Amino acid sequence: MKPGLVWGVLVLAVCGLGACGSREEVARVGDTPVLLADVALQQQAGGTPEAALEAVVDRTLLAEAARRDGLLKDPALTARLEAARREVLAHAYVESVGAKASTEEALRQRYAAQKDSLARREVHVAHIVVYVQPQATEAERVAAQARINRVYARLVGGEDFAVVARETSEDAATGSQGGDLGVLREGQVDPRFFAAVAELKPGVPSAPFTTPFGLHVAKALEAPRTVVPSFEEVRGVLAAQARNDAVQERTEQLRKDITVKRYPERLSTGKASGRTEGESR
Fold it and tell me: Angle between the 75-101 and 231-257 helix axes, to the nearest 10 degrees?
């Protein structure tokens, strides 16, 4: 028998025995109904519907036992339950607000409005690097500086950049390619590195410069240019911005619409007070 058919028979059997208050109820543990939605959630972890049902029943048995033993009278436990409920609801609401704000149409409108500000410089560049570890001693730093100075001297003396890169660069991945890093876009690499290479004239090696990774000599293989990323390239960024903006705006509106009363004096004393402080509307 197919799993889906087995599941359908199971649901009908349970309901046929009078255990179901509705077609959504697939089991009852004490006074607690187990719904199809409960099983579907459990089944996201994998397994058959039948196995998921048994897993939910087992956990519900334990929860029912906790209720009967009076554990719900424990303020710490009830606080944890309320915190879980609060977080699930808040998360669901944030997702709902964010989804409405990040529709295809809304994102394309945001892209059109921000298109000019999205422009970024990019440059096709090659480099030679001598790595310097953050914990390097002064002697190690002096030795690294001497190595990059010798590299620069060879380049100024007219040697081919790609050849020198293959022989001296400590970046094995790019060194074997003549130091070619490909096209780098502003914001994708260390700001100090990009600032050093973005103003280079094609074919002219830079003087040695420092980044958090070490000492570099670089060469622009093409003239730097300014480009505007396509909508698809920045879609994810635009969606995140739209969702964040919408949630912040909605939160501010909720602060105005829903009365909030704070009792800061109770935080330290734990005692109730008839005094109301920090009330906002």
Answer: 130
